[in-house]
Amino acid sequence: MASSSSSTVSKTTLREDLTCAICYDLFTEPVMLGCMHHFCKRCITAYWRSLRGPALCPQCRQEFPNKSFQTNYLVAGLVEKVKASSSAGYLKSLEKRLKDHLDSQKLRKEEIITMIREEEKQMDTIKKVGAELQDRVRSDFQALHHFLQVEEAAVLQQMRRDQEVLVQSLGRHLESLHAAVQELEQNLSAIQQAASSVSCSALVELPEFNSRPQLQVRRQDIDAFRSKYIIPLQYTMWRKMFKSLRPGPLPLTFDEDTVHPSLQLSRDRTQVVENEAMLTYRRNPKRFVQCVNVLATQGFQTGRYYWEVGVGTKPKWDLGVALETVDRQARVKLCPENGYWTLRLRNGCNYSAGTQPWTPLPISSRPQRIGIFIDFEVHMVSFYNADDMRLLYSFSNGPKEKAFPFFSTCLSEPGQQPQPIHLLHFPIYSL
Ligand SMILES: [Zn+2]
Ligand SMILES: [Zn+2]
């Protein structure tokens, strides 16, 4: 608004500046006198003709020795511009330009309003997602807190019980000692009485000491009590807690019914490596026969699961999840559309996500262990560098039906020593 009113002011001033003080119209053939005032050539000539005396400026009354003036082409040009800008054609085109401008501004406004609505919707989505995540994080921490609270209460309760047993035992011992003292005192007085009357009676019956103080609470019992609770308590609890993690790292095994005949499984089915020759195998629709793949024995359909795979410095592999229904007899591209959610490594340093086309991932950390997490509630499959638990990639369109952990050793390059893939088991599970 400010710029449009200031341009109106400057235009009015310009028009006034270009107006002849004699005819009050825009200059026609403007000329400049020695005093720098301008007039139409025709107006000043007529004015001077009507004068009897010397030539003078009708504006400032300065006198001049002769009736001379200078044509001012600059002012003449400005006058032409102002006249042109006031012409009907110009005004019409200006009007059209303004209308076009108005229309385009209206359109732009509509576009921006649509953008605002969309962003407001996104804002709501972010808030909703944030609230859901908060609930999720809280509930995970609550589970940990709850575990610790229950364990703490149990340890303290057991400790109080143990303490009570010791106290009661010591109490009973004290009671029996007091009883013994009392008995001894009675005996003492009986003996004293007997001693004082020993001259009058030959028959003196000496009292017997009958009290049998119960077993004493030994120093060892107190030491045992102390050493039962002076322990690496946090580690002990952490080990218990590890087993209660939901999800904690699953101890998976390879499924020998699915393994490609060129792959060799270890006896405990936690390690797979390429074999030089094809091994004999039972025909079976579950077996991969085109690509050097294998699945885990454990499949999932609901819930949340996490497992870790040791890849060491192996330069090539594909890891992830495959639907139970994938065609094991065909050679297919690994992508969610074909029932595979995978992370892959080639040439020891090129990581990519199994989309079509591949999504290259800028991973420079060269993880030796890969963590894979599947959440059926939110249909997500995520990959982590299990060395530091940094997220590597996440699919948000994960499986909606039964799926199995998937592994491909890939074929080694000629001359390269095949390296195995390990299913990592944590010894803590068996403790
Ligand atoms: Zn004039
Ligand atoms: Zn003048």
From TrEMBL:
SUPFAM superfamilies: Concanavalin A-like lectins/glucanases, RING/U-box
InterPro entries: B30.2/SPRY, B30.2/SPRY_sf, Butyrophylin_SPRY, ConA-like_dom_sf, PRY, SPRY_dom, TRIM/RBCC, Znf-RING_euk
Positions in coiled-coil regions: 102-136, 167-194
Keyword Metal-binding belongs to the record: yes
Keywords (A to Z) from UniProt: Coiled coil, Metal-binding, Zinc, Zinc-finger
RING-type domain residues: 20-61
Name of the protein: Tripartite motif containing 105
Provenance organism: Pygocentrus nattereri
